[in-house]
Design the sequence.
């Protein structure tokens, strides 16, 4: 049972008033800086530690599933937790509030960029905030590692996952899948060769895989079809957009209709974007610049800078692409209206599939939660996720504390192609002010136990003051 909206020892999901959930998810959406590592850290600190709305095991179980899905895993994770707490309306609420603040900010910044082509003022605005988020990420990483790494095998899996990502640049879905297979294999081995572990497993009464009835399978299929239809509904509108005949004589669709082309292209991206924004940015930039000419060379990096300084998933950078495409090819609309429509279509094509995967797949995942073999596989995936977050945290930290970060090849094959490499900063470019804010934020979080919102506010003000003083000098 739950008391005062908190989980008890024998409970896993608390009963929370919907209005309170709205306020908390809105706050999470506004503070979700730092990429997936920072966002998962924020949700863990808020939902598990502070509010105690969901148990640690349930949190990790949901995280394991979301790590296997294409698209923005942090938004899917928020949707899953919202669904656990309040059903479909809770999932929609959590998923929307997680991305809406960042989307609104990205929309405004994209409009300013399109009109003025200037982003140099952004670093001053978010300088201190990013350094403070790094401290939040480190705190969450340590907490998650303490709770997820329960055996020596878990430590090995976490270490191997980190090295595969950091040095081999391996695709993280492959790393996560291999970790799950390793956990499953270790479970089978332990049951065959370790009598003590076998007796312990029997005492825990592991369940066989549940039997899924025709009704149990038909309902998720209907949910899947329903959400796919909602996802693709805007295509019926944008493919039939027509400009007045005195402006554009031909009917517009597909390649000649920028809005139809945007929606179709980013719908395809939504189902293959494993590994987050960086996994697809190169390909998106090539197509957007080379094929469609929506952007100029180098503008994708400007968009990435905007996305890194806004709350929400980093994949919001794709909305920047959609805005510029609509702004520069607005058909019969005003440029800013065309840009807003382009960004909205890209956001819809990118984020609605998250609801598809959760509402159709989460019921199956929940039914499999008590299976011993699958629990072992998911525990191994949790260990791999620790390695994934360590890699993301290190990458984020290097780019916050150093102005220049490159890669050093440790092992190469023909034509100088690196097999093993690692990120390495230019030590002379260390930002002393960022380092100082990071240390202060760490002290406030770890030792003073100050609330996260207060720490973020103080560090944001400190960073703004430092950058303002530099401009005056």
Sequence:
């Amino acid at each position: 049972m739950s008391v005062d909206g908190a989980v008890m020892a024998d409970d896993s999901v608390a009963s929370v008033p919907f209005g309170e959930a709205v306020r908390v998810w809105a706050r999470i959406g506004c503070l979700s800086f730092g990429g997936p590592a920072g966002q998962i850290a924020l949700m863990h600190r808020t939902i598990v530690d502070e509010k105690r709305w969901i148990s640690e095991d349930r949190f990790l179980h949901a995280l394991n599933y979301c790590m296997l899905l294409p698209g923005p895993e942090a938004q899917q994770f928020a949707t899953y937790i919202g669904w656990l707490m309040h059903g479909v309306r809770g999932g929609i609420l959590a998923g929307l509030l997680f991305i809406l603040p960042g989307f609104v900010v990205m929309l405004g910044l994209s409009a300013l960029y399109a009109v003025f082509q200037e982003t140099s003022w952004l670093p001053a605005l978010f300088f201190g905030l990013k350094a403070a988020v790094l401290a939040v990420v480190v705190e969450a990483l340590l907490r998650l590692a303490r709770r997820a790494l329960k055996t020596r095998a878990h430590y090995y899996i976490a270490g191997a996952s980190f090295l595969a990502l950091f040095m081999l640049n391996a695709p993280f879905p492959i790393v996560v899948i291999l970790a799950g297979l390793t956990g499953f294999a270790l479970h089978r081995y332990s049951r065959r060769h370790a009598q003590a572990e076998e007796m312990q497993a029997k005492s825990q009464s592991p369940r066989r895989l549940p039997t899924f009835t025709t009704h149990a399978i038909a309902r998720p299929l209907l949910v899947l079809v329903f959400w796919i239809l909602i996802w693709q509904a805007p295509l019926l509108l944008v493919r039939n957009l027509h400009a007045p005949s005195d402006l554009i004589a031909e009917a517009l669709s597909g390649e000649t209709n920028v809005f139809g082309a945007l929606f179709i292209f980013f719908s395809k991206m939504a189902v293959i974007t494993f590994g987050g924004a960086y996994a697809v940015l190169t390909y998106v930039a090539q197509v957007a610049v080379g094929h469609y000419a929506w952007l100029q060379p180098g503008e994708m990096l400007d968009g990435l800078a905007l996305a890194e300084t806004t709350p929400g998933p980093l994949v919001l950078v794709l909305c920047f692409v959609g805005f510029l495409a609509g702004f520069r090819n607005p058909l019969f609309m005003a440029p800013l209206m065309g840009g807003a429509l382009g960004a909205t279509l890209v956001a819809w094509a990118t984020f609605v599939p998250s609801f598809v995967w959760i509402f159709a797949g989460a019921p199956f995942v929940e039914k499999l939660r008590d299976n011993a073999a699958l629990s072992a596989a998911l525990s191994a995936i949790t260990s791999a996720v620790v390695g994934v977050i360590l890699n993301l945290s290190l990458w984020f930290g290097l780019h916050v504390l150093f102005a220049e970060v490159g890669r050093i090849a440790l092992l190469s094959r023909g034509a100088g192609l690196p097999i093993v490499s690692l990120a390495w900063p230019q030590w002379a470019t260390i930002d002393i002010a960022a380092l100082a804010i990071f240390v202060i934020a760490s002290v406030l979080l770890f030792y003073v136990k100050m609330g996260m919102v207060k720490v973020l506010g103080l560090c944001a003000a400190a960073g703004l003051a430092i950058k303002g003083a530099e401009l005056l000098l």
The CA atoms of residues 12 and 55 lie 5 Å apart. The first strand starts at residue 2 and ends at 3. The chain has 17 helices and four strands.
